[in-house]
Amino acid sequence: MDLTLKIWRQEGPKAKGKMVDYKVTDISEHMSFLEMIDVLNEQLVAKDIEPVAFDHDCREGICGMCSMYINGEAHGPDRGITTCQLHMRMFNDGDTITIEPFRANAFPIIKDLVVDRTSFERIQQAGGYISAPTSGNTQDANAILIPKHDADEAMDAASCIGCGACVATCKNSSAMLFVSAKVSQFALLPQGKIEAADRVLNMVKQMDTEGFGNCTNTGACEIECPKGISLTNIARLNREFLKANL
Questions:
Q1: Which of 111, 143, 170, 240 is 20–30 Å from 11 (CA)?
Q2: Per residue in 205-217, pLDDT tens?
Q3: Element (H, E) at 193
Q4: pTM for the whole thing?
């Protein structure tokens, strides 16, 4: 498989970026998208050209690091997968593939395809935790009875990996799906009730401080989310926020 890649190159946060064309040949359809980028970088290094900088870690669809905007879609032309799980069989021989970083004011570009997503971490630090007594006899985790429906919904919300696809996809660069998943994860469980009001108020405040836009119910975030986080979590976030204010 021979391909033309149009890749965003940018030396640093304040540098002017541009799209650069590259040719790659003999790409197997069984390669992952990141393996294809690895091949390109090997070719660039052999020609004494600086390789393309991009984020990656586990390459198992868990860490959420592999944030790329591929042909106008976060994580590329497939559903329920991260970029590292995207395979070249989704493309055809001779295709031109456009690769860009996630674009949002709250996700400033560091270099090439690498963006700074520490804004998500600051939102987490604002309220993504519970009180857990550390003195005396610690209660067993399974000693608190939780309705299965609530437990299942909490686990679904907890599957959010914080990749930022929801932000990159949203026309408003909203982080509501991410924040709602982190709020719902605790709001559905008795362990999260103690800080419930402070959590939602602090996390929403931090989200606004970071410069994310607001939700206008377009629904693109749920479609592009690699873990299928539901919009119902945003409704729950709004309810929790309203209750906390009252």
A1: 170
A2: 999 999 999 999 9
A3: none
A4: 0.93
